[in-house]
Amino acid sequence: MNLPLISIVVPVYNVEAYIKHCIHNILSQTYRNLEVIIVNDGSLDESISIAKELTKDDSRFIYIDKENGGQSDARNAGLDIATGDYIFFCDPDDFMFEKSIENLYYASVLTNADIVVGSFCRFDEGMFYFYPVQKEELLHPVNSKEAIMGMDDEEDYTLLRYSAVWGKLFKKNLFETIRFPRGKYAEDQFIMWKLYLASKVIIRYQSDVYAYRVNYKGLTQNYSLSHLDFIEAIEERIQALMKMPELDYPMELAFKQYKFALNRNISMLEESGFVQEAVELRQKLEYFESTNSLFLEDTGE
Predict the structure, then answer these.
(1) What is the spatial distance between Cα 284 and Cα 184, in angstroms, rounded to a whole number?
(2) Burial group, residue 17, by CB count within 10 angstroms (0-12, 13-18, 19+)
(3) The model scores a pTM over 0.90
(4) Residue 187 and residue 167: Cα distance in Å, rounded?
(5) In 10 A of CB 175, how many CB atoms?
(6) Do residues 58 and 71 touch, judged by C-beta distance below 8 A?
(7) 292 pLDDT band (50/70/90 cuts)?
């Protein structure tokens, strides 16, 4: 039986402490017809040397070397050369379980899904933390509106499950016109809602396929001004959804998420000493609370 090729895209930058675990888990996949694209995003440590040594006898691994351009740019570079029928993204400090790709593939085949949204667990200092999932059939259909609502969910698990590109199997054709925004933090937030809208069938797969490692040196754990990109992503999504009355999206969810993001970033800016940026963001929050509309939308900035 000739199974379709699945491309796994792994952007790599200075993860020598974790890359071995990630590669070992890819090598252990029961689904064998893989194309694994390792994108060296200008790593300065031994990450790529470690990966190449582990995969030197495996022709399925392809290496790209490029100047550092951030995770978005690295993922795009992988997409540009991917030849698989499906795409799976794996961050180099995270890992999968041995049947993850196989299970996601068969979930897609059984339902003709454009996107299969798997469950995930958290891995923190050698311990697995599993999230309780709602009791329902193993393969549960969701429409694009419901999937985007997941991105606005108050619960961290649901928000991350629907917002992150990892832990999902995509039909490659979804990326013919959709790419990650170069140089942006929270790049997944900029494109996941677009991928959901471009999909005819989305399936929620109620089984863990991905382990998200809490990396205290990673981007998501160290605050910088780049985190403000998350707010920009929500603003872009809100403005787009407001122009889609046919979707009947509950905008109050997006507004609540937007307000939460503003408040959270104001606190982080103040704690990190970014005083002027905190003042500007507070002005944006006050404007939003008084008008219930976006600061950028009305000022023309």
Answers:
(1) 20
(2) middle
(3) yes
(4) 15
(5) 19
(6) no
(7) confident
